[in-house]
Amino acid sequence: MGNQNATGIKRLNNAFGYSMQGFQACFKHEEAFRQEIYASLLLIPLALYLGNTGIERALLLGSWLVVPLVELLNSAIENAIDRIGPELHQLSGRAKDIGSAAVFLALLLCACVWLLVLLPRLSASG
Length: 126
Description:
Helix Hairpins; mainly alpha
């Protein structure tokens, strides 16, 4: 950790550095996050291409970006639990399961948004 008393640009620079360290750590240690980053290489350009309006593009893109965002939070929870200790505990398992459920809901949200935006277009063309 850097200087806790940093202000202004120095604080913003430190925060950016910590964020990049977080991305790198999650990419290195979390398979699901790596898969979501690889999927992003396809889904982000696809969202921008398939959206007919700025709102559609924002919905498609935003609904996808929620997925790796929630994955980052889930990974943080899992790492904090693992830091406490390796022994099995009901509350540790529950915390990890709840984090996993959050990722599932993010994926469900994304799928629903993409279907609701794109399905009318597909059914109109057929």
